[in-house]
Amino acid sequence: EKAGYEHFMLKEIYEQPKVIRDTLTPRLPMDQDDVYLDGINLEKEVLEKITRIYVIACGTAYYSGLIGKELIEKYARIPVIAEVASEFRYKDPILDENTLMIVVSQSGETADTLAALRMAKKAGAHVLGVVNAVGSSISREADDVLYTWAGPEIAVASTKAYSAQLCAMYLISMKISLVLGKLSTEEFRELRAALYQLPSQVEHILENANLIEAMAKKHVNMKNVFYIGRGLDYAVAMEGALKIKEIAYLHAEPYPAGELKHGPIALIEEGSLLMGLLGQESLFDKTVSNIKEVKARGASIMAIAMEGNKEVEQVAEDVIYIPRTHWSLVPLLENIPQQLFAYYIAKNLGHDIDKPRNLAKSVTVE
Ligand code: M6R
């Protein structure tokens, strides 16, 4: 059932072009300037009274929610709070009938996420679930469900579900902005065209996996790794670092690039690896100068950047280029090399990749 792949994780990484296509294309017809979300009620009357949106989830699902938050705020101009479910549920959050809560969950069974959903419903908020497992508790209890069509995810480390969740975030942010008249037809078409290119762009990255495998071999003895970025790149950094912790059992920390000098740079020494995420071109120079500061302290430097930004080679010894895309879709492409890098590091270390120690696929206890 691993279809010839050595691990489910690798198989699931390679399924991503299909998963992205399945999640996006039925909802984005080429001949109509609209997003069709399976009959979900995000119509004008509902959205006009929404004053606040929460995005609630755990782990990788939460990191996809962070991208959703940025995009909804950027395009629809509605305040969005993204929070991990285990924090949210023990606070006294402002929840009422003018609140929209988006809960994100692959399994649809995560205990804290389900508890947050129930709090929201009790307070009269509208709950939209972004769920992968059909018929799961969250899908049954949410007011509306947008399914991610990732198919069953077996490996504990989430890969294809994250990509599908990002697609859902793109669709939801586009829908909300369109309904509220905040996204021009021109911008919409530009985004749709870029979305349609994602599957083949992911394929292109996967075809060059051997380069990433070689980089993993080279860096397998690192003591620790810092993932840094700004804006959407920082949200992607969090997902990259989690994957390393989870399956490689190495100390990995995501940091907003500009925060390094406020403390963590003291940890940098020889044997440290820095993964610089440079996909956001408007922030490229800023992050490059942060990388220089780290390099001067003896760390090895890897970077992920968009094709065409060759200047990165002046600071990084190993560069992974992703195909050019719209700035808001960078996270999806940038994360594919991160998945492969974590996978090959863990493989070189001889770990049980599909069933990492101390972890369960679905966290149904608090
Ligand atoms: O099933 P869920 O999406 O609700 O699970 C949330 C997290 O437990 C999950 O994403 C976890 O962080 C993954 N193992 C990360 O790879």
Number of helices: 13
Write out the strand line-up for the largest beta sheet, numbering strands in chain order. 2-1-3-4-5
- Summed over residues and divided by their number, the pLDDT gives a mean of 97
Q: Name the bound molecules.
A: 5-amino-5-deoxy-1-O-phosphono-D-mannitol
Largest sheet: 5 strands, parallel
Low-confidence region ranges? none
Tell me, briefly, the overall form.
Answer: globular
Kindly, what is the distance between the CA atoms of the first and last residues, rounded to a whole number of angstroms? Answer: 32 Å
Strand portion: 15-25%
Taken in chain order, the helices and strands follow as: HHHEHEHEHEHEHHHEHEEHEEH
- Integer-rounded radius of gyration: 20 Å
Instruction: Give the strand tally.
Output: 10
The percent of residues in helical segments reads 40-55%
Keywords:
366 residues; five-stranded parallel sheet; 13 helices; binds 5-amino-5-deoxy-1-O-phosphono-D-mannitol
Write the layout of secondary structure elements.
Blueprint: H1 8-14, H2 16-24, H3 44-48, E1 52-57, H4 59-76, E2 80-84, H5 85-88, E3 99-105, H6 111-122, E4 126-131, H7 137-141, E5 144-147, H8 160-179, H9 185-207, H10 209-219, E6 224-229, H11 232-248, E7 251-256, E8 272-278, H12 284-295, E9 300-306, E10 318-322, H13 330-348
Parallel strand pairs: 1-2, 1-3, 3-4, 4-5, 6-7, 6-8, 8-9, 9-10
Residues 58-61, 105-107, 110, 113, 156-158, 242, 246, 362-363 line the site of 5-amino-5-deoxy-1-O-phosphono-D-mannitol (M6R).
Catalytic activity: D-fructose 6-phosphate + L-glutamine = D-glucosamine 6-phosphate + L-glutamate
Subunit structure: Homodimer.
Active site: 361
